[in-house]
Structure formats: structure tokens, C-alpha cells
Amino acid sequence: MSKLFRKKSVDQILIDAQEGSGLSKVLGVRDLVSLGIAAIVGAGIFSTIGLASFEGGPAISLLFVFTAFACVFTALAYAQFASTVPVSGSAYTYAYVAFGELFAWIIGWALVLEYAVSNTVIAISWSQYFCSMLEGFGIHIPGWLSMAPAYAIEAHDKYLAEGMSALSIADKAGLEAYLSAPRIGDIPIIFDFPAGLITVLVTWLVYVGIKESQRASNIMVMIKVGIILAVIIGGVFFIKPENWSPFAPNGVKGVLRSVAAVFFAFIGFDSISTTAEECKNPQRDLPRAMIWCLIICTVLYVAITLVLTGMVHYTELNVKDPLAFVFKYVGFDHMAGIISVTSVIAITSALLVYQLAQPRIWMTMSRDGLLSKKFARIHPKYKTPSFATIVTGLVVAVPSLFFKMDFFVDLTSVGTFFAFILVCAGVLYMDHSGLSKKSKFKVPYINGKYLVGLGFVAACFVLFYYGQDVINEWKSLSALYIIEHKSLTILFWLVWIVLAGMAYKFNFSLLPVMGILVNLYLMTELGASNWIIFLIWLAIGLTVYFVYGYKHSKLNKKVEAN
């Protein structure tokens, strides 16, 4: 058991990185902020924000504020780790320092899922905007060549069951794709070719160099932020205040139902930390970049949400291209066309950053012996993790060809929440063990000795006096239903009790504790099906670890040698 939780010292991690890196140190704080904005302001603002607004109404803007509030604590924790352990690997490396090898592997494996799934969503979203843009120029890509097979099959089944009158515009497009697709026997050939193509092209750009990727990202971010500001400024003149009423039509439940779609937007600052070994001064620049990214992106998200729900009633926003849609809705077709063109560029930048991040996590895991040595291979000319980059391209391109976006959106957040909670907990460990003395940036210390426990008492008081509807709902649920769907909520309250006791005993810092609790609470809002898929993924990862990683771990070899 002790081998499973063996830790790497900060000094050893820095030595390993120095010996095995070979990456080019070219990134400054401006480049990091640009990469962060490229990742955070991506498919979320150009695609999933429409679905979130449809579910929660104008009040979804408050969910962005609440989610950003949660991310502040996490960003501060990331910033402290990044200033202490300035190497690639993100939360994987931080968990190795704080909790040991098994937790590091679990986080690394979860991040593989996070980045692969996130980029699949982005690639599919890019395909939809790209096809819309081409339509504006009179170029039509056949439906069977630009959508997931499930859309066409479901539309065909609906047509057979309910007739043509029951089909929506999207269903009719799916039916047309099903009927016009070439066939092998009775099986229609349907796939999303643009999504696969853009993944291959971006993977090639990431493969040929960090400097080239950084330049491309900077240009695309300037275009992206420019079009978002144009939407905000131009959209103000079309706002109808009556569209903001009711502000929260589906109540708190409707707002929280979109947690995954909203939180999906903020996972980008994790990707900044994966470029630590390519920063000129990571210990100074990474913390600054993370905080700046969070502030800038939160302001943009809140503003764009209020503008969208002010221009068009929230019930009309269940579309895949909401920014272009709202201007078409108000009759400003020229602006809609401009948005479609620039959205293609903007979403490409998010795809670029995520494709940049995942190979570097694999590279770090390989450097520690937990994955094959091939993943740590650095290209002699381009100075990038070549093999890991190619595998990343395949892992993203193949699912984007054949799967629906809806399948992936919620799944993006499961691994992210898990990683964020461990990073916040890692700061508590650093403070308790004395590792924080090596940190050039520290999370501001607020003694939580009494505050964590008082917060729990206050939360119980509020729930008892103002949450009778919630209490009555729980009373009506069966024990089996609670176990299946409410276990995480119970875990949330139990963790709060435990943290209150530990905060009293060890004088825990308040901000990391709040980061743990807020992220854990947001996790309770995710669907059970996503957790089942995540647990299956985790089981596969643990199998890989015990079959290969445990045996080949460099730490394990050092222990055996001694």
C-alpha cells in the first residue's frame, strides 16, 4: 500500500524535467493569457451557451458568476502549485507531489478523458459553424458528410413512428442525410468529415512547434475577442427588457441543470499549466496569467449571456450556433454572416490549445514511467512531444467523426471537477507539510479554524428555514433512488463535516476549503449516467496502471534499487 502512495519531491520533479525536457522556452505572460482565453472562450460561448440559456433563462448569467467564483479558488490553488512545481503535467504532477502515485495516475487518466472529450465537443461545434459559413457562400456539404450517424438514424426512426409533420427542421435535415447517404448493403455511410479534418489540421500545427501554435493562437484570439465585443456592443441596441422576464423561469433547478455546459467553458486555465516547461518565467507568469484569464473571460461570458437572452427570448435559444442565430432572428443577416465566419476561427483556437495540452500530460506521465517511453519522445527538429501529439489527434478525430455532441458535453466536467478538488486539497497538504515555503505565489491565507464549521451551521440553518421544498422532496424519495441519484449530495455534506473538524484541528486555510466544497457541490448536479461512464473509464485506467504503470514506475525502480 505504501508503494501506491509514494510521492515525488519537488526537487526530484525539477531534476527530471531538466533532464528529459528539450522543449522550447518561448512563452511570456501575454502568450499565456492568450492561450487561456483561447481555451476558455471557445465552444462554450459559441455553442453550449445557447443550450444553457434555454435551460436556465437569463439567470444563466448568474451561474457563470457562481462558476467563476468556484474557479477563483481553484485558479489560486493552481497558481500556487504552478509557482512551486513549474513543469508540464498540470494536476497530475501536483497530485504526485501531494498525494502520491496512485492519485496522480487517477488524475492523469481523468485529464486524458477531459481533454479528449472537450476537444471532441469543440471539433463538432466547429463543423457546425463551418457548414453554416459555407452555406452563406452558396456551398453545401451533404448532410451525410457533416453529422453524426445518430442524428440521422433518430430522425429516420421518428419519421417512421410519427410521420413528417412531427419532424423539426433539424430532424428533416437528419432524415435527408439518412435517405441520401451512400450505403454498404443496408447500412448508410454517415460521418462528420469537417470535424475530423479540422482535428487533423490542428494536430499538425501543434506537432510542428509551440512557437507556431502560439502565434496562430494570438491572432485567432484577437479576432475572437473582437467579434465577441462586436456582438455585445451591437446586440445592446436590439435588447428588449421584457425578454429578461421571467429571469429564472425554471428556478434554481433549471439554472443548475446547465452546470456542466457552463463549467465546460472554464476548464481552460488547467491547460495553461501544461505549458509550464515552455514558459520563460513560469513561477512568475503562470499565476498572473491564470487570474487575468478568469477575470477577462467571466466578464465576457456574463455580458454575452445577458445580451443573447435580451435580444431573443430564452425559449428560442436551443440552437448550436446561438451568436449567429440571434442576429438572424432580429433581421441583421450581415452580422450573422460575419459571426459565422469568425466563429470558425475562434473555435479553432480553443481546439488548438486543448490539442497542445493533452500530449504534454501524457509526456509527463511517460517521463515518470507510468506510460510507454514513446509518449515522452521529443521531436529533434520541432521540439514537441511528437508521438503523444499524433495519438492525441487520433483520440479526438475518430470520436468527432461519429458521435453526437450531446453525449460528450456533461462528461467533460466529471474529470475536471475531480482534478480541481484534488488541486485545492493539495494546497492544504502543502501548507501542513511545509512545502508552501517553496512557493513563489501563495493562496492568501485566511484561518478557517472556526469559519468552516460556522459555515456548515449557517448552511443547515438556511436549508431548514428556507429549503422546506427540498426537504419535502427528499422525504418523498425512495431509499434506492437516493442511493442511485443523491449519493454525491450526501457525500458533499459529509465532506463538509470532516473538513470542519480538520480545519479546527489543523487551522486550514479557508480559500482552498471553499474550492473543495464549491466544486464538490457542482459535481452533485451532474447526471448519474456521466458518473457511470467516468467510473468505467477509471476502471480501465486502473487496469492499465496495475498492468504497466505500477511495474515500470521510476519511483518503484528506485525503491527496489535501494
TrEMBL record:
One GO MF term:
amino acid transmembrane transporter activity
What Gene3D superfamilies has UniProt attached to this entry? Amino acid/polyamine transporter I
Pfam annotation, one family: AA_permease_C
Where is this protein found? Membrane
Question: By its UniProt entry, which PANTHER family does this protein fall under?
Answer: CATIONIC AMINO ACID TRANSPORTER 4 (PTHR43243:SF4), INNER MEMBRANE TRANSPORTER YGJI-RELATED (PTHR43243)
Q: Which species is this UniProt entry from?
A: Sphingobacterium psychroaquaticum
* Membrane-spanning ranges: 32-54, 60-79, 91-112, 187-207, 219-239, 251-269, 289-314, 334-357, 382-402, 408-429, 450-467, 479-499, 506-522, 528-548
Which keywords, in A-to-Z order, does the entry hold? Answer: Membrane, Transmembrane, Transmembrane helix, Transport
Q: Which residues form the Cationic amino acid transporter C-terminal domain?
A: 510-553
Listed under GO cellular component are: membrane
Looking up InterPro entries in the UniProt record yields:
AA/rel_permease1 (IPR002293), CAT_C (IPR029485)
**What name has this protein been given in UniProt?**
Amino acid/polyamine/organocation transporter, APC superfamily
Topology in membrane: Multi-pass membrane protein
